[in-house]
Amino acid sequence: FAIVRGWRDSRIPQECFLQMLHGVLAEFSDDDVEKWIDQALTWELTLPEVHQAISVSAWPALSEFLGRLPDSVTPSELQEALWQQSFVENPTQAPDHRNYRRFALLAAQMVAIGVELESGKVELLVQQALDLERPWREKRDMLIGIFSAASVEDRQSITRKLDRRFEEHADIDDFEIVCGIAEHVGVEIPRDGAIRRCA
User: Fold this and answer.
1) Do 139 and 132 form a contact (C-beta atoms < 8 A)?
2) Using CA atoms, how far apart are residues 179 and 140, in angstroms rounded to an integer?
3) Which of 23, 35, 64, 106 has the largest CB neighbor count within 10 A?
C-alpha cells in the first residue's frame, strides 16, 4: 500500500494495483496472508493518504479480495468519490459523454459493495444523459448503468417520468431507451402508459 500513497491517475489502470497485490500475497503463507489482510483493513486502509489514493474503480474488486470494505470506507464516502472522480476530476480532459459513460459503468459495479446512488442525483443524471447529443444506444447504455445503481423506488419513479416524456414528445428514441432499460434492468414499464400502448 505504500506504493499507492499519493498515486491516483485515471491513465493508470487500477487493475495494475490489484495484480500487484495478488502477486505479492502469492508468496506468503496462509497465516501471513491472514495477518496482512487484517492489517490492511484495520490500519493501512484507514489512512486517508492511502484510501484516497485508490481509484473508486478498484474498490469493488478490492473489497472482494479482502473479504469486506474497511470500516473507515463508507458507502457515502464512495458515493462522493464516484461523483468527484467521474465529473469533477478530469485529468484526461475527456468529453462529457465519456464521463457519463464511465460514471454509469462504475455506478453499476458499486452496487456489489452496497453503494446506491443518492436519490436526488439520479433524476439529474438521467436528464443530463438524455440531453447529450449522442446516439440513443449510447444514452440507453448510460442510463442502464445509472438505473442499476439506483434504488427500486427511483427506478420506478423515473420510468414513469420517461413514459410521460414519450407520451408528450413521441420520440422513437425515448421508446427504444425505455424498452432497453426494462430489458436489462428489469424495471416494469407502466401498464397504462404510452410505451405499452405503442409496443
Assistant:
1) yes
2) 9
3) 106
- Secondary structure (H, E, C), the chain: CHHHCCCCCCCCCHHHHHHHHHHHHCCCCHHHHHHHHHHHHHCHHHCHHHHCCCCHHHHHHHHHHHCCCCCCCCHHHHHHHHHHHHHHCCCCCCCHHHHHHHHHHHHHHHHHHCCCCCHHHHHHHHHHHHHCCCCHHHHHHHHHHHHHCCCHHHHHHHHHHHHHHHHHHCCHHHHHHHHHHHHHHCCCCCCCCHHHHHC
* Rounded Cα distance, 148 and 129, in Å: 15
What's the rounded Cα separation, in Å, for the pair 134 and 45?
39
> What is the Cα–Cα distance from 64 to 69, expressed in whole angstroms?
8
Q: Locate cell 462522493: which residue?
A: 80
Separation CA 192–CA 171 (nearest Å): 18
- Residue tagged 404510452 (cell numbers): 194
pLDDT in tens, 67-118: 888 888 888 888 888 877 777 666 566 677 777 777 887 888 888 888 888 8
Instruction: Copy the grid coordinates of residue 2.
Output: 505504500
The answer to whether residues 49 and 7 touch, using CB atoms and an 8 Å cutoff, is no
Q: What are phi and psi of 124, to 5 degrees?
A: -60, -45
